[in-house]
Amino acid sequence: MALVHNCIIRALNSIYLQAPHIQPSDHKSFIAYCLAAHDGLQAHHDGEEEFFFPKIEHITGRKGLMDGNVQQHEAFHSGFHAWGQWLQDARSGKTEFDGEKCVALMDAFVAPLSTHLADEIPTLLALSQFGASLDLKSLSKAEGDKVMGGLSKTAQLPIFFVNHDETFEGGIHSFPPIPPPVKWVLRQCGRWNADWWKFGSVGFDGFPRELRFRGE
Fold first, then answer.
1. Interatomic CA distance for residues 14 and 37, integer angstroms
2. Burial label, 51 (beta-carbon count in 10 A; 0-12, 13-18, 19+)
3. Which terminus of the chain has fewer CB atoms gathered within 10 Å of its CB, N or C?
4. pLDDT above 70 covers what percent of the chain?
5. Percent over 90 (pLDDT), the chain
């Protein structure tokens, strides 16, 4: 879960920092990158609310146990949805992309989102009180497989690859937790829209890189 959250944070940071400096020639690609981040986060939270949290409550017999997490989702949903709708309008040509507008819309939800992403980890760690009866590792993998499997391999999933630092904590984490040959294939699929992923904080080799569009 922390690895997913790290990817989301890196992706949103890369958007926030670069948006004011994107030139019109790159607007189309940048909007697609932003929408990939939006859709990835939306899919992650849908997966939690529709599968992960209900499974935890069912196994523990504690209905409402995860309500605090759902409430935190709701705290940033309005601003997050407004940002996503604006991006959709920019992609369709209903409105023009503006970097400062993008940042202003993000300002409406990044604070409560950051609180949620930080709080959720200790909330999950506290579930250790239920011992072996609650196999969080298996549940988390099942939710991750469901979410990742539902994302477009060329238009959405690569947002996680270009924002997961393979060198993090000495490179001990494999993310997504899939066999290397499958990961290699997915990375190749991501190159299909290479112009979108140049805004990522990590290259397809898994190594962090300087953001290309930071201005002077």
1. 10
2. middle
3. C
4. 96
5. 73
Could you state, in order of their start, the residue ranges of all structural domains in the chain? Answer: 2-153
Phi, psi of 120, deg, nearest 5: -65, -30
CB atoms within 10 A of CB 94: 10
Contacts of 135 (CB under 8 A, 6+ apart): none
Amino acid at 131: G
Of the pLDDT bands very low, low, confident and very high (cuts 50, 70, 90), residue 177 is: low
CA distance 139 to 17: 34
Q: What is the mean pLDDT of residues 156-182?
A: 83
Q: Which amino acid is at 135?
A: D
Q: Note the pLDDT of residue 189.
A: 67
Render pLDDT for 60-93 as a digit per residue (tens, 0 to 9).
Answer: 999 999 999 999 999 999 999 999 999 999 999 9
- Other Cβ atoms closer than 10 A to 179: 9
